[in-house]
Recover the amino acids of this structure.
């Protein structure tokens, strides 16, 4: 259990169809494509792409098939992915609380939420006055914005190209809970959207991304075909490029 | 049960305790409905959906009840899992943004809770919010009038949407990457009214302020939209005949009155019209815009497009103006990217590039970077030749027109270009066979044209030696070798744009530098490959519009050597017809013409936005005063006799006023 991590590395072989404008610099075309994957949940990889490295062309030649203007290249790429595992704990920072849920950010970017029925009602109670979840005994710490918590991942939802982590405090009550209390910055309950005095700042970036440094990164071999037709320059461009690649 | 509870609310006098009681009931029934639905019995859930949609569509004021519903939903927000997307969809479709502020507040809190608890709703929520930024979108629903608060103006609507978007983005940092698609989709298409375009444009520019990541994609989206309209206008205009164009110009573009009569071409009484409309308020401009009843459908289409282009550029100029220095640096970099990606390869765009022209006026650093970028394109052999030629045109036109560009970099550029041409000659001259096909050496000719154009516009500062006035008789040091270029076997003076060459000849002659008429007037160039060009409406040519008066973008012809009435040879208008007739003329200079090269920075004629450009734009200053007569021969003799190089008007001087009547 201890060896498990939410990050993984996979070696992939991709077949990309690149637009003719990259004919002289296919690498740029590949990178352009890969850039679009960054911070996206990619179902085929089952994770959010954090980075890619080691782009290698696996063939010397690119193929142009039939009358398609695109040329396809085979590339090998190593992706680093964030792919949260169920039943594993993770640390997140609270960025929104309501009577019914706790919203958190993992590593400053990925959203997680703990619905109220997954909160240990024994330990925490919604306090309408301070607009936060409060410990029912002990130090009576509050769960409010900025608070750092550890929780168990019970579900990972993937919808609309997004990945949302559903957390729980019910399992492993000893391992989960508040790690560091947030600076008390109660959110104004009545926010007046008509006067733009909303002073929301972007949530402070969680700087200390701790990579669980295990060397037994899983290696998967994924092969997939991607259609890349998004590079359409449909402005009335007169672009000429020499039409050969060897 | 739910119905009952709802109905009851309408009869109960709403004392505070009752209210909280009602809320309790709502909460428990809704929670109940969700639980039941998860077990498979969705009937209660459906009745909630029905209730909400009937409340939404009811004619009576359903605000109170909706508020309670929204508060209830806020409290059970974690229940809105994927299984309940339908319900969420209905809730999201509630018209909230035009209602009174208490409802809007409750609703926006619900939205926040929703996306915080279930980040995947980010997409539908953002999509709807962005749609609300379109002009009139919030009011489109016929029922909206009934429920909306009359005090909520479109501006307030947008403020609300922006406020909510901002908060949502702060909750979901990975959200912005999902926004650009809905933003692009919601962009009003080019056939929609000007107001729609401008309103939306302003709004998405505002989004950049609080979602800086979107700066680059939003700006390139905008430029793409603008350039599409721009090109479309040029295409439409190309299809028109001259009369239409004149009509249109007089109506749409900011025009110095152009006399149409061919015989009076010289006697243009041009009054610069300074009717720069104030464009401070969006509303003003649109409401009392121009009315052209007499325009045909096609014209009005163009007219609308011109208005759009004008308005959009105006907003962007204003945006650039108001940026802080750092933001502007940022902007410059982004624009350079966009320039390379979109503007430079786009043929026939006429106004879009003025964004860069304007931005460059803020710092010499920008100027240098821009010019260097272009020079690099010209000099790099691997760049496609179309881009090289376009870059050369950009360099020349930019240096010629950018009043703010200092002479130092101009000299450097000239040196660079001259050296490039000389090298080119050294390397390629021996390859020319018995027949010269200019098309194979496009880049060379475009660079020579660039040199000539820059010289034509900048010769005063180039020829000046430390306060001694203008030196006669020799080329400025930067142009050393130009004579070699001209006399090379490439024969640039014959191949290059005729109007340009003649002006150059006149200038060099006046300055006692060289006498080139003999070179290009000799028609015996059988060794140059002729292109029997089809006389279509599309004419390959450099345009030298305002040599003779600003003119709308159109073809310009130089082949009227047999037409003695026209002195200037560059009148762009009216000659198409002649052209047609002259078709069978055996020696037609046009046949040597290179494929079309357009100068990107031609006089800026959009009414509303021109005041941004006017002061930084170098107009053409005629070379000497004695040019009001007919053909070149007499011109030459005149010049020889008079040798008058009158003290030149300073560059800032508007030549139109100075024009001999």
């Amino acid at each position: 259990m201890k060896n498990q991590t939410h990050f993984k590395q996979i070696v992939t072989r991709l077949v990309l169809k690149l637009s003719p404008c990259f004919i002289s610099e296919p690498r740029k075309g590949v990178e352009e494509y890969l850039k679009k994957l960054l911070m996206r949940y990619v179902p085929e990889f089952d994770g959010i792409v954090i980075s890619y490295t080691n782009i290698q062309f696996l063939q010397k030649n690119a193929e142009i098939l039939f009358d398609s203007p695109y040329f396809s290249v085979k590339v090998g790429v190593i992706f680093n992915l964030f792919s949260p595992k169920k039943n594993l704990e993770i640390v997140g920072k609270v960025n929104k609380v309501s009577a019914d849920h706790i919203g958190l950010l993992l590593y400053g970017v990925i959203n997680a939420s703990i619905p109220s029925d997954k909160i240990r009602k024994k330990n925490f109670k919604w306090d309408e006055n301070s607009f936060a979840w409060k410990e029912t005994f002990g130090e009576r710490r509050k769960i409010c914005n900025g608070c750092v918590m550890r929780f168990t991942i019970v579900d990972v939802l993937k919808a609309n190209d997004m990945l949302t982590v559903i957390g729980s405090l019910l399992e492993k009550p000893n391992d989960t809970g508040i790690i560091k209390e947030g600076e008390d910055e109660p959110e104004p309950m009545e926010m007046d959207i008509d006067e733009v005095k909303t002073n929301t700042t972007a949530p402070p970036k969680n700087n200390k991304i701790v990579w669980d440094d295990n060397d037994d990164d899983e290696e998967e071999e994924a092969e997939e075909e991607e259609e890349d037709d998004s590079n359409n320059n449909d402005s009335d461009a007169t672009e000429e490029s020499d039409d050969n690649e060897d | 049960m739910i119905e009952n509870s709802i109905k009851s609310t309408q009869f109960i006098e709403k004392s505070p305790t009752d209210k909280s009681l009602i809320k309790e009931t709502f909460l428990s029934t809704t929670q109940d409905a969700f639980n039941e639905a998860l077990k498979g019995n969705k009937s209660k859930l459906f009745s909630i959906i029905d209730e909400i949609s009937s409340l939404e569509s009811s004619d009576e004021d359903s605000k109170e009840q909706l508020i309670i519903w929204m508060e209830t939903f806020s409290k059970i927000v974690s229940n809105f899992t994927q299984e309940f997307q339908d319900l969420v969809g209905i809730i999201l479709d509630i018209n909230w943004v035009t209602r009174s502020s208490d409802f809007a507040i409750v609703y926006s809190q619900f939205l926040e809770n929703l996306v915080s608890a279930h980040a995947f709703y980010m997409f539908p929520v953002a999509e709807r919010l962005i749609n609300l930024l379109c002009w009139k979108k919030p009011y489109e629903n016929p029922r909206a009038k009934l429920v909306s608060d009359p005090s909520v103006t479109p501006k307030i609507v947008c403020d609300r949407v922006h406020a909510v978007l901002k908060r949502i983005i702060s909750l979901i940092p990975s959200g912005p990457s999902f926004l650009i698609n809905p933003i692009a989709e919601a962009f009003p298409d080019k056939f929609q009214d000007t107001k729609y375009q401008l309103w939306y444009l302003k709004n998405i520019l505002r989004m950049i302020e609080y979602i800086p990541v979107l700066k680059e994609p939003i700006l390139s989206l905008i430029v793409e939209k603008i350039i599409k309209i721009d090109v479309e206008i040029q295409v439409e205009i190309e299809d028109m005949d001259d009369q239409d164009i004149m009509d249109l110009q007089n109506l749409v573009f900011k025009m110095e009155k152009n006399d149409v009569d061919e015989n009076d071409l010289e006697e243009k009484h041009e009054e610069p019209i300074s009717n720069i409309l104030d464009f401070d308020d969006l509303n003003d401009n649109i409401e009392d815009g121009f009315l052209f009843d007499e325009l045909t459908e096609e014209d009005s289409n163009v007219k609308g497009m011109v208005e759009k282009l004008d308005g959009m550029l105006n907003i962007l100029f204003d945006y650039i103006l108001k940026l802080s220095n750092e933001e502007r640096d940022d902007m410059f970099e982004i624009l350079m990217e966009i320039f390379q990606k979109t503007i430079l390869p786009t043929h026939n765009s006429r106004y879009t590039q003025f964004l860069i022209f304007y931005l460059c006026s803020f710092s010499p650093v920008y100027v240098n970077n821009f010019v260097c970028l272009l020079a690099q394109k010209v000099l790099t052999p691997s760049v496609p030749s179309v881009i090289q030629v376009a870059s050369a045109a950009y360099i020349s036109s930019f240096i010629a027109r950018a009043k703010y560009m200092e002479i130092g970099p101009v000299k450097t550029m000239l040196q660079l270009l001259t050296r490039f041409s000389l090298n080119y000659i050294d390397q390629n001259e021996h390859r020319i066979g018995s027949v010269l096909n200019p098309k194979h050496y496009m880049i060379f000719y475009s660079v020579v044209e660039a040199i000539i154009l820059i010289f034509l516009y900048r010769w005063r500062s180039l020829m000046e030696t430390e306060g001694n006035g203008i030196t006669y008789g020799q080329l400025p040091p930067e142009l050393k070798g130009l004579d070699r270029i001209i006399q090379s076997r490439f024969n640039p003076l014959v191949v290059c744009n005729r109007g340009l060459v003649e002006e150059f000849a006149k200038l060099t002659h006046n300055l006692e530098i060289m006498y080139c008429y003999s070179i290009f007037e000799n028609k015996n160039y059988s060794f140059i490959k002729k292109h029997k060009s089809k006389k279509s409406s599309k004419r390959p040519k450099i345009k030298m519009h305002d040599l003779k008066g600003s003119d709308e973008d159109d073809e310009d012809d130089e082949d009227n050597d047999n037409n003695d009435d026209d002195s200037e040879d560059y009148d762009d208008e009216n000659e198409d017809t002649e052209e047609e007739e002259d078709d069978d003329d055996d020696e037609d200079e046009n046949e040597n013409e290179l494929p079309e090269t357009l100068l990107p920075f031609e006089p800026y004629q959009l009414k509303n936005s021109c005041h941004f450009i006017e002061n930084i734009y170098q107009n053409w200053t005629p070379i000497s005063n004695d040019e009001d007569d007919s053909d070149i021969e007499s011109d030459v003799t005149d010049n020889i006799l008079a040798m008058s190089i009158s003290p030149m008007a300073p560059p800032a001087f508007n030549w139109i006023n100075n024009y001999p009547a």
Observations:
- Chain B has 29 helices and no strands.
